[in-house]
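Progress against Task 2.4 (sequence-to-structure conversion) is shown through the following example record, which the project officer requested during the mid-term review.
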Amino acid sequence: MVFILKISTAKIHKTNQSLMPLYKTITFNPNTKLLIWKIEESFDVLSKDIKLTDHCQARVDGMKSDLHRRGFMSIRHLLAYFGYTDFDLSYDKNGKPHLADGKYISITHSYTFSAIIISDHPVGIDIEKQRPKILKIAHKFTTLAEYSTLANEDAIIRKLTIVWGTKEAVYKSFARPGISFLEHIFVEDFRLDDPGTSAKVYADNKSETYDVYFQEFEEFTLVYAVIS
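Structure tokens generated for the chain above:
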């Protein structure tokens, strides 16, 4: 699949709700776009003029973390950029989000960043903070021996974060219970200066291949996967 990749940063777009700062906009083609927002507003500001379904209001009310609450609401502003509201969004039994018009959507937020990708094709997205903690859980999703040639621990953390993010993005798109990151999702090897890679998932007598792209910014890693 060939994409027309256009990237812009630090734009301000006026939605029906407010002036919303977009940290980055990535356009693959006219039918696939990704928006990233750096969450700097308070929960009260993010909640202004946003109407939630009863289900989502209950979810927000039950969140103890202010950062999680702000991340949840920032996603609703990103939806508004595309002309959607919370009432256009639903979740299936596996927790996968769906839009009422049939377009594919994937959602992520981590600490101070949130993002969504919307496409005519199956997609997945993930943002991860680069943290040494990933070294302790790496054995759960990959084989550490594969990273022995990297120059230093920082490079290992960066690459492991990309691999984890790739598997998260693919898992979100494939969305079937019982999927093992270690046993069912495989990432083609890549260099840190590559723009992307590919990944395959095998489970339940079904397989899918994804084109994967990644970017690093402010000690975070963004990964997005589009079905090949």
